[in-house]
Amino acid sequence: MTVVFASAIAAFGGSFEMALAVVLVGGLLQMVLGLLRTGGLVHFIPYPVISGFMSGIGVIIIILQLAPLLGAPASSSPLIALSQLTNTLSSINIEALSLGLLTLGIVFLTPIKLSRFVPSPLIALIFCTLLSYFSGFSVAEIGHIPTGLPELKLPRFTLEQWSVIVTLGATLALLGSIDSLLTSLVADSITHTHTRPNRELIGQGLGNTLCAFIGGLPGAGATMRTVINVNSGGTTRLSGIIHSLFLLTLLMGLAPLASQIPLAVLAGILIKVGFDILDYRMLKRLKTAPRSEILIMMAVFALTVLVDLVMAVGVGVVLAMGMLTRRVAREADISFDDHNGHHSHDVEKVGPGVRVVHVKGPLFFGSVSHMLDRIETVDKVIDTEDIIIDCLKVDFMDLTAIFALDEMVERLLQHKIRPKVVTTPAIKEQLLQINTPHLTEAIIFTNMKTAMR
To answer: Higher model confidence: residue 205 or residue 190?
Structure first.
């Protein structure tokens, strides 16, 4: 989101007020998404996608924090961090490494009974920072933090740049919404609770809208901080309020204290977070889980680490949808009856030249091509005069299937074959509502015996 904001400033020739207009549009669109109840779509993301996303974030955190743990400068991406690992290992700061290892020891080994009262990351943060300060360690620290309250800023719009403002604002809204909802999914997975996604979007949108009036960067749910919060015992909304108030106290004058926190200490705390985010439930079942699910999980994991979080989830959802479509399509079954009674179903008095096509299961874009191929083999048989398409056991039809069925009836009529469709009353009503040229009431029946007569 910061990159989009920076590109907005560049696109508008350095105009900060017009960049804030992008933030305003993004916040308003987020609220619209919440009011339209689109947040509920996040619950349709399959578990392997969430698992790959969680484990990918965990590995990203661990890789990015290795350099600060060793006292070397941090990298901006996992790939850069891995490529510079040799240089990082050759420039180890022993004092920083000692602080980092001590932090890791505290966060991993502090008894649970003690952590319930005082979170282990907080113990490590205070103890190791004081140790570094009084021992005079020469290590990298957080450094200068600006103080003071922000000034009022008003967004500015121009008609010439309106399309760019809306485009970048929509990008901010989508990025922020996806990031926040995925963070909610991770939190739900850890705490075994259920977030209200639409309220989350409205809240995020309101916050970003207000940011536009005080010169603030747009924000979203932060997975790393959320996991730290939950693992430290912060399971209610009060933790978010305390978080905000603490940041406010830093702005109002306590920033010099936080500026002296060693980066190696933060790295140790974050590495523990990285290990906590890893989805051990899925990792333990890599040998026994279905291969298709493992493929989705590994694809999302690799894209999360190597490319981009949003792209990883998008590709994972598309893969899951494709595999589900293929699986459902295979459930569709098509078989035939002829005048010799060659079928398990007993159809009364099927005379010469009459064939019955039994269609079973879901009839949709994934299975309709299979049905068309089978029907074509029937309408080429010389002695066929009537074809009854039995759809009584079809669960549902989508628009693709309805149009394909209409085209099939048209082709049968061209071959001088009289078609009839037998289906349930609900699907018959659906077919008639679509009002296709050849699926008329004259050839659609809800009873097999009537169609036979």
So the answer is: 205
According to DSSP, the β-strands at 354-360 and 418-422 are: unpaired
In 3D space, the residue among 256, 259, 233, 255 whose CA is nearest the CA of residue 246 turns out to be 255
Out of 34-48, 132-146, 358-372, pick the least confident. 358-372
The whole-chain average pLDDT of the chain stands at: 86
pLDDT at 174: 86
pLDDT at 331 over 80: no
Max Cα distance, the chain (Å) = 101
**Tokens 């005069």, residue?**
385
Question: Which of 289, 285, 319, 287 has its CA nearest to residue 302?
Answer: 319
One domain, residues 52 and 150: yes
Structural tokens at position 181: 């909802």
Distance CA 43, CA 349 (A): 51
Q: Is 363 helix (H, G, I), strand (E, B) or coil?
A: strand
Considering its fold, how many domains does the chain have in total? 2
Length of the chain: 453
Amino acid at 280: Y
How far is 218 from 233, CA to CA, in rounded Å? 27
Residue 389 to residues 333, 348, 360, 409, 445: CA-CA distances in angstroms? Answer: 13, 15, 11, 10, 10
Q: Tally Cβ neighbours within 10 Å of residue 286.
A: 11
* 300 within domain boundaries: no
Residue 353, both tokens: 């030249």
Phi then psi for residue 390, to 5 deg, are -85, 105
Evaluate if residue 297 carries a pLDDT over 90.
Answer: yes
The string of pLDDT tens digits covering residues 5-33 is: 888 888 888 888 999 999 999 999 999 99
User: Cβ–Cβ contacts within 10 Å for residue 225, how many?
Assistant: 14
Q: Can you tell me the distance from the alpha carbon of 209 to that of 21, in angstroms, rounded to the nearest whole number?
A: 9
The two three-digit tokens of residue 207, written as one number:
């916050």
- Mark whether 160 and 69 lie in a shared domain: yes
Query: Does residue 113 lie in a domain region?
Result: yes
Percentage of the chain modeled with pLDDT above 90:
33
Q: For the segment 390-405, what is each residue's pLDDT rounded down to a tens digit?
A: 989 888 888 988 998 8
Residues 6+ apart with CB under 8 A from 175: 1, 4, 220, 310
> 338 pLDDT exceeds 60?
no
One domain, residues 139 and 266 = yes
Range of the domain at 405: 332-452
Cα-based distances in Å from 239 to 92, 235, 245, 334 = 36, 7, 10, 58
Per-residue model confidence (pLDDT) at position 211 = 92
Rounded CA-CA distance 96/70 in Å is 6
Place of tokens 């996303």: 53
